[in-house]
Amino acid sequence: MIQKILTFIIVISAVFWVVYRFYRFSKRNSSPCDGCISKECNSCPAIDLKAEAERRKNAKSVKSAQP
Question: What are residue 66's phi and psi, to 5 degrees?
């Protein structure tokens, strides 16, 4: 009887773990800012890439504006 209870607990835990991982995976793909899996991630990769492009564009326009 104890074996059946332990097996049931392990199977239920595995099912919850799979559902949780699937939920995280599906939620992560819904937004471009969810690329960071780490809990210490302080910025969004999409926003960082956009900011870098803006900096390069501004630097290029400043160079072309100088005589």
Answer: -80, 140
Digit-by-digit pLDDT tens for the chain (67 residues) are 999 999 999 999 999 999 999 888 776 655 555 555 555 566 666 777 788 888 888 877 766 666 6
> With 0-12 CB in 10 A as exposed, 13-18 as middle and 19+ as buried, what is 19?
exposed
Residue showing tokens 């799979």 = 18
pTM, two decimals, is 0.42
Number of domains forming the structure of the chain = 1
For residue 15, what are the domain limits? 2-65
